[in-house]
Design goal:
- The complex is a heterodimer of chains A (80) and B (626).
- With 80 residues, chain A is mainly alpha-helical.
- Chain A contains 4 helices and no strands.
- Chain B is built from 25 helices and 19 strands.
- Chain B starts with a helix and ends with a strand.
- Classes of the chains: A mainly alpha (80), B alpha/beta (626).
């Protein structure tokens, strides 16, 4: 999977979870940009990303998944 | 998300925008079946709310008392419930307040006024002495722990029952992946596995002692998916969540098995297709000797499904048949085919004819005097499933995978066959049916079959026979019985010879739709001499009948004949035992009957100069470049 595809899929997942249009979630979006993205909702984000990319994240990795660029970095390094 | 999924979402939004709610609902159900998960749940919930009269109308308040994190399960169960017409309001208790939830009359549980209460408590939280450090416990201690936890559950259930008639669902206790004592556990006077098992039996006793109390076998659920796969240690340690990402949907679906019947939704009658559903193959094409049904592969998959259906019948589900077939042949298979487990006497209503399935389903509901919303429908053909979903959204259309080996499982997983006996049940059930009937009346008038055809994204390719298609073309002339005007059988050599004649053209038609590539599905042969064209052969695979593909094919043939200088097209219909489906075809497309003296075959004529027939707007037709 190319990084571009990962960016788009990650953006779509986030847009879905928070009821946003895809255009409102950019490649540089961070959790602070989305008011509903708190620590409880963060678990939904992690689970949705695990389902989307077929991966499992460790607790350390889970804490890093708070920005789109970090998500993309982590997913592409794990997906190989 | 794949391109295909993005397209489906766009279609759903377009249908909603256009007010075609039944079609939008059908697409949404299909979308969810393919993408169940955390992200899709949000999309489904948002769109379900916008389905106008088909938006979830049955409000149901549910409270989950819990000892672990279950938050990510919530949107998934709500999305599933929405597609069963239930607007599920789900409140969660605080961590570790499960005792207070039930015992304190002012607790959040009672404030929520739920109809459904779930006690989702883990072994390690309610009876920690039987989880960690088990090997250190003596027999008396273990017994005491077991008695204590059963006393706890008993008092929680009694407290709830005193105040509330909600359905109460108790998660039973999960076994550890590895007993603390290792392989010696089975040799202990009271081992860990045995202790937990006896508690679970005790929970069932408690459930039986009250009305409206049920056990959700959490242990069986985890075992079904594999103890090691169910858990994700990282999620447990960091977030106190005992579910891996892939366990969220199964957990949600297990809750749904209670939500759906508590809401009053249930299938009283299961309506079955025959071909490729109850047996492998098409009886009208393959004959009694050609279908697959028995205890060997591939017939075994269908026999397993029949057994599952018989099990449902034992549960009180009525069985019916809706099949597009020649009545005689199909009846014969039902009566006498040795592999059948289901027999005519098992079916309360039967519609075996060439009518559209929605019509048959309505007639069955009428005949059995039950609401159309009390029907479930099982059919291997995704096109039939969609036509029923989009015209009769109240019917539960069970989604089937491609592979017959998994049919049985799909049927067992459907929540509409679950039966509960609830104290408030009857009241709720008739409320649901009344609401639903009103919805159904609204919907039928609004939408057309055109929407359905359009939604199939049909793409047709027509070409002239050549070495690569010769075998399949000849085969189709030999094997097609039902939609075949003249039933002229030809070998490869005969087709080849015919194609070489300058005045003759042998066409094939190939169909692709949103469900895949159907391959070559039609053959037609026209002969043009001077200003007269003759339709020697016109046949279509029975799988693609009834969606205007025949119209498109004929339109192309007429156009081609015009180009070759024909002003008139003549055709014959030669009736056989099997080709009733094609009997009305010529008349329906502008052909006029000629010199019919009541003899076996009929003759027809079409004036090509008047320009018809036309290719339907929802089929993309192109000719193969050769």
């Amino acid at each position: 999977m190319s990084k571009l595809e990962i960016v788009d899929q990650a953006r779509q997942v986030i847009a879905d979870l928070f009821g946003l249009a895809l255009g409102d979630v950019g490649p540089a979006t961070v959790s602070r940009d989305i008011p509903d993205w708190d620590s409880i909702r963060h678990l939904d984000v992690v689970m949705a990303l695990e389902q989307q990319f077929g991966l499992t994240f460790s607790p350390e990795e889970m804490a890093q998944l708070t920005t789109v660029p970090q998500i993309v970095e982590l997913v592409s390094s794990k997906a190989g | 998300m794949s391109m295909a999924q993005a397209t489906v979402r766009a279609e759903i939004d377009a249908a909603i925008q256009a007010g075609h709610f039944a079609m939008a609902h059908a697409l949404l159900v299909e979308y969810w079946a393919a993408t169940k998960g955390s992200a899709a749940a949000a999309f489904v919930l948002a769109r379900a709310a916008r389905l106008g009269p088909l938006a979830p109308a049955r409000k149901l308040r549910m409270f989950v008392s819990r000892s672990m994190t279950v938050e990510p399960v919530v949107p998934i169960v709500r999305a599933g419930a929405a597609l069963y017409g239930v607007d599920l309001e789900l409140r969660l208790g605080e961590f570790g307040t499960f005792s207070q939830d039930a015992l304190d009359g002012q607790s959040a549980l009672y404030q929520a006024e739920p109809e459904l209460i779930v006690l989702a408590l883990q072994t390690r939280d309610v009876v920690p002495g039987l989880w960690a450090g088990f090997p250190g416990r003596g027999e008396a201690e273990v017994q005491a722990e077991a008695e204590n936890v059963l006393a706890l559950y008993g008092s929680l259930v009694e407290a709830i029952r005193k105040r509330n008639s909600a359905a109460v669902v108790i998660h039973d206790l999960e076994q550890p992946a590895w007993p603390g004592a290792g392989v010696l556990d089975g040799s202990l006077a009271v081992g860990q596995v045995e202790a937990i098992r006896s508690i679970n039996q005790g929970l069932r006793k408690i459930a039986r002692a009250h009305t409206g109390v049920y056990v959700l076998s959490y242990d069986a659920l985890v075992a079904r998916h594999g103890r090691l796969q169910w858990h994700d240690e990282a999620k447990w340690l960091s977030m106190r969540m005992p579910f891996a990402a892939s366990s969220l949907v199964p957990m949600a679906e297990e809750w749904l098995r209670f939500v759906v019947p508590v809401s009053g939704r249930l299938a009283k009658c299961l309506v079955l297709d025959l071909d490729n559903t109850l047996w492998g193959g098409v009886i009208g094409e393959d004959g009694l000797n050609g279908i697959h049904l028995g205890n060997e592969y591939p017939g075994a998959a269908f026999q397993a499904l029949q057994q599952t259906i018989l099990d449902l019948r034992e549960r009180g589900v009525i069985l019916a048949i809706a099949s597009k077939n020649n009545s005689e042949e199909a009846q014969k298979a039902l009566e006498s085919y040795p592999g059948m487990l289901l027999r005519p006497q098992h079916f309360a209503a039967v519609r075996i004819n060439w009518n559209p399935k929605p019509q048959s389903l309505r007639e069955i509901a009428d005949e059995l005097n039950i609401g159309i919303d009390a029907l479930a429908f099982l059919d291997d053909n995704p096109v039939e499933r969609r036509i029923v979903r989009s015209q009769l959204p109240e019917v539960t259309v069970i989604d089937l995978p491609e592979e017959p080996l998994f049919f049985s499982r799909a049927l067992r997983e459907s929540p509409v066959f679950e039966r509960l006996a609830l104290s408030a049940e009857d009241r709720e059930r008739s409320r649901y049916y009344a609401e639903d009937r009103r919805r159904g009346e609204l919907r039928t008038r609004v939408e057309s079959v055109e929407d359905f055809h359009r939604s199939l994204n049909m793409e047709m390719e027509v070409g002239l026979v050549d070495p690569s298609t010769l075998a399949r073309v000849a085969q189709l002339t030999q094997k097609t019985n039902q939609f075949n005007l003249t039933t002229l059988r030809r070998s490869e050599a005969e087709v080849d010879e015919l194609a070489r004649q300058p005045e003759a053209r042998v066409f094939w038609a190939r169909l692709r739709d949103r469900f895949g590539d159907n391959g070559l599905v039609g053959v037609a042969i026209t002969v043009v001499e001077g200003s007269r064209a003759t339709l020697d052969t016109f046949l279509l695979s029975c799988r693609v009948i009834g969606r205007t593909v025949e119209t498109a094919f004929l339109a192309l043939l007429a156009e081609d004949a015009r180009h070759r200088g024909a002003e008139v097209m003549e055709a014959r219909f030669v009736p056989t035992k099997k080709n009733a489906p094609a009997a009305g075809f010529l008349a329906a497309h502008g052909f006029v009957a000629v010199e019919n003296d009541g003899v076996a075959e009929t003759h027809w004529r079409l004036e090509l100069r008047s320009g018809g027939p036309l290719v339907p707007g929802w089929i993309r037709l192109h000719t193969s470049s050769r």
